[in-house]
Structures are given as structure tokens and as C-alpha cells.
UniProtKB/TrEMBL annotation:
Membrane-topology descriptor: Peripheral membrane protein
Cellular compartments annotated: Vacuole membrane
Name of protein: V-type proton ATPase subunit F
Recorded superkingdom: Eukaryota
GO cellular component: a single term: fungal-type vacuole membrane
Length: 122
């Protein structure tokens, strides 16, 4: 993939709980358009949100969209779709697992950190 193919990657996507997404939107991360397939770059995961819905949005943000450079996902939500997160190997978008107010960050669960440890033989 050439550098030109990634020049449109200017957005940060967010899959998170209400508090996390609200904070990111207040920080200016939100993007809402009328372009089909790119209506918004965030998903608020509520208790009634199914794993299938989370997977569908994850797939859309990582496979179908060419404007997302970084995807932030709450770690406890990434656990619900761990297979998808762990098997994603492309450079873009970069997947970053972040803590939430009610769920602290656990480095043992972070797929990126586990890959780095494997590279260094730990």
C-alpha cells in the first residue's frame, strides 16, 4: 500500500461506553456526514448492544472505511470481540485499547502489547 493510499486517513474512530465516547466527542473527535457508509466515526456501546453489532462496526471501521487512521476501543469492549481485535494485522487503522471509567486497563489483555512482547521474546 502506498503512502498516497493512506492520505485520506484523517479521522479517529471510537468504539466505547457512553462516558468514553462523550469525552472523545467533547475533545473534537466526532465526525458526522451524510456520505453512505461513513455517517459517523463512533459507536456508543450500551448494555443492550450485541457482540454482533460491535463486530459489524469494527469491520466497517477497519475494512470498509479509508478515512480512519486510529481506532480507539475500550478494552472491556474489545474483550467482547477479542478474536476480531487479535486477528487484525493491517497497519491502518491502528487499534488502541483504552481504559474506561469503570474498567481499568489490563496490559495482559492488550493485543498490541502481547505482539510486542512476542517480538522481543518475552
Amino acid at each position: 500500500m502506498s503512502i498516497d493510499a493512506n492520505k485520506n486517513r484523517t479521522l479517529i474512530g471510537v468504539i466505547g461506553d457512553e462516558d468514553t465516547v462523550t469525552g472523545m466527542l467533547l475533545a473534537g473527535v466526532g465526525q458526522v456526514t451524510s456520505e453512505p457508509g461513513k455517517e459517523k466515526n463512533f459507536l456508543v456501546v450500551e448494555p443492550r448492544t450485541s457482540d454482533d453489532q460491535i463486530e459489524e462496526v469494527f469491520d466497517q471501521y477497519t475494512e470498509k472505511r479509508d478515512d480512519i487512521a486510529i481506532l480507539l476501543i475500550n478494552q472491556h469492549i474489545a474483550e467482547r470481540i477479542r478474536f476480531k481485535v487479535d486477528t487484525f494485522t493491517k497497519a491502518f487503522p491502528a487499534i488502541l485499547e483504552i481504559p474506561s471509567k469503570d474498567h481499568p486497563y489490563d496490559p495482559e489483555k492488550d493485543s498490541v502489547l502481547r505482539r510486542v512482547r512476542r517480538l522481543f521474546g518475552e
